[in-house]
Amino acid sequence: MNTRFTHSPGETAQMDTAHLRDQFLVTGLMVDDAVNVVYSHYDRMIIGGAKPVLNPVSLPVPGELKAESFLERREIGIINVGGKGSVNVDGETYELNKLDCLYIGKGAGQVSFSSVGSGPAVFYFLSAPAHHTYPTSLLTRENASPVKLGSPETSNERTIYKYIHKDGIKSCQLVMGLTLLEKGSVWNSVPPHTHTRRMEVYFYFDLGADQRVFHFMGEPRQTRHLLVSNLEAVISPPWSVHFGCGTANYGFIWGMAGENQEFTDMDGVKITELE
After folding, report:
1. Count of structural domains within the chain
2. pTM for the full model?
């Protein structure tokens, strides 16, 4: 398990490209027949990926967790961005089509991932510490309360799907959903914002192999950028903006943990204030 420590705004402003990528960009999550996890000290979020191709793969129990099982003191949200798959939780199987979400509460034991059919399934997950057990819940894309926002004129016509939130799947602190941009739209999360009460992770998917997303981060007047490829994630500190522009349309999964679960709790930044 790779561990990422926290950084102050002043320290981050002095980083060169290689250092920024090393600390905030998460690459190599999806490897055939493997599970990979990254531990962030921002709200102790774990970012992970599972890609079962020939065989099922299981959630590991990294020694750093000092736990009997991965979810002994944690909850997890899982979204499939590949072919049809299934997740087995202590002997019970849940099938996930593309963009379906499964939440598993604190205390679950064995968790494994499989592909169903030609696949492969590609599972992205986030895990946060939990103090209470909420039931395992499956929510399909069709039932995720889609909301359309933006417009072609501002190149950000998009649909937001909310899965784990106060009015959806219940959790201790995890908030999770995804956004799909329409063809011709490339900007996400504009106008930008921060929320110092929560960290956030963006995971980009359905981006062509020869395309990239310019992900902007940093303080509003000290912005930096990362070039992000398909199936890569960016760790966003609570003090940082997090928005981006692609060379083509794409989808991204957003997930948060921290002091509250208010999706609308944002400190907006005007475009004219960015530097």
Report:
1. 1
2. 0.96
